[in-house]
TrEMBL record:
The chain crosses the membrane at residues 16-39, 59-77, 89-107, 119-139. This is DUF2637 domain-containing protein. Keywords: Membrane, Transmembrane, Transmembrane helix. It comes from Planobispora longispora. It comes from the Bacteria.
Length: 420
């Protein structure tokens, strides 16, 4: 008889029993609904309290460590029966005592980490107990492959716990562990196969070529000052000329102001090495009243011919340039002069060397050299060319002149309007 017919016959024969069953089923459904809802609320609360604030890697670490601990516990279940002879309730109570000890030690180690910034003896106990349970569970293995697997599972759990502790230690203390002095990176840097900074290959090559030029210039100067024979002087000058040719060819030295400043800085440092013995740096532990001011000396007064940039600097300008022998002071003056130059070019004015010297305190001779270099740049060159088209000679600052866009093109680049 079909099931539906049996149910219909039962309802016809026993209507009261059927009603009682329906009421009991309805009550069970209602109670089941409330139990499921309560469990869902508790699970949601636990999730938002303990799971959601944790990073994903911590959650995955806990899941993987739990699986590995379960594999180890399953091995201890077999070991307690086959080797120890435990059975029934005794086996159920005693088979996983080592796994419980491992979890207890891990919890204590985490608490020590948060309170004392170190896992302490409990961290060592985690590794010792993990190794013990791995060895015991693998002793009851039926094959070498199973033995290796049972050895690996607890060690994987311990490793995941150790990495989680290391991340938490770094987050709490703000520092990692010791830094080894002998690492592959340091060895490669030491033998010259790796770069210590993030410079590109072209930047490293340019720096080395500029350094060779500076060293060759220093060598030639030393030979000249020492009165070396003509043969040695010719060889030194020939080497300087070769290095300069290579630097101009491979580094763009002739058109790159940054490379030119870098070369001048290296030459300035190499030429004034002997000045280091005469420095009087401030004493850091001396009283404040006795510490000399680190401010740079006042710039020398600008003296000399100030009416035309095309004229050579007079003796006064040469003397003023000679006074700037400190590379740091020279770099500060050149930086200030460059900022003033860029600001004036933005205003569509081409400053004179006298303007640069007056505004920045730079010696006139150095200002003339800087202006002779900077006025070859596209924007400044376009302003000067536009002024020449209107009959204005480049003798200094001249008023802005609005010209069509093609007249302002320099090296094929348009700049809109210009002034000269």
């Amino acid at each position: 008889m079909p099931l539906i017919d049996e149910i219909a016959a039962y309802v016809t024969e026993k209507p009261i029993g059927t009603a009682v069953i329906c009421v009991v089923a309805l009550i069970a459904l209602v109670l089941g609904y409330f139990v499921v809802r309560a469990v869902a609320r508790v699970a949601t609360r636990l999730f938002h309290r303990y799971v959601a604030p944790r990073p994903v890697e911590d959650i995955l670490t806990i899941v993987a460590a739990s699986i590995a601990t379960g594999v180890s516990a399953q091995g201890m279940w077999r070991f307690s029966s086959d080797v120890l002879g435990f059975d029934g309730p005794l086996r159920l109570l005693l088979f996983a005592f080592i796994e419980v000890a491992v979890i207890t030690s891990a919890v204590r180690a985490r608490r020590n980490m948060r309170e004392n910034f170190s896992a302490g003896i409990d961290g060592i106990a985690v590794w010792a107990l993990t190794g013990l349970t791995a060895v015991l569970s693998s002793m009851d293995a039926r094959s070498p492959a199973e033995a290796v697997f049972r050895l690996a599972a607890p060690l994987v759990a311990a490793w995941l716990w150790e990495r989680g502790m290391a991340i938490e230690r770094h987050r709490i203390t703000g520092r990692g562990r010791i830094h080894w002095r002998l690492t592959p990176e340091r060895m490669l840097v030491r033998i010259g196969l790796a770069e210590v900074s993030d410079r590109t290959a072209s930047e490293v090559d340019a720096h080395r070529r500029l350094t060779r030029v500076a060293l060759a210039a220093k060598k030639a100067r030393q030979l000249r000052e020492a009165g070396a024979p003509e043969r040695k002087m010719r060889a030194a000058l020939a080497k300087l000329d070769r290095e300069m040719d290579r630097a101009v060819e491979h580094t763009g030295l002739a058109a790159d102001p940054a490379r030119q400043e870098a070369l001048l800085a290296q030459i300035g440092a190499l030429y004034n090495t002997s000045a280091l013995i005469d420095l009087r740096p401030p004493v850091p532990w001396a009283p404040e009243s006795e510490v000399p001011s680190p401010a740079l000396p006042a710039p020398p007064p600008v003296v000399g011919v100030l009416d035309d940039d095309d004229e050579e600097a007079g003796p006064a300008g040469e003397d003023a340039a000679a006074q700037v022998s400190d590379p740091a002071q020279r770099a500060l003056l050149m930086r200030a002069a460059r900022e003033y130059w860029d600001k004036q070019i933005e205003r569509k004015f081409v400053p004179r060397a006298t303007d640069i010297a007056h505004e920045t305190g730079m010696p006139l001779a150095i200002a003339r050299k800087c202006r002779a270099l900077w006025k070859l740049e596209p924007r400044a060159h376009a302003l000067i060319e536009a002024a020449r088209e209107h009959g204005i000679v480049d003798t200094g600052t001249f008023p802005a002149i609005e010209v069509p866009e093609p007249a302002m093109a320099a090296n094929g680049t348009g700049t809109g309007s210009a002034s000269a």
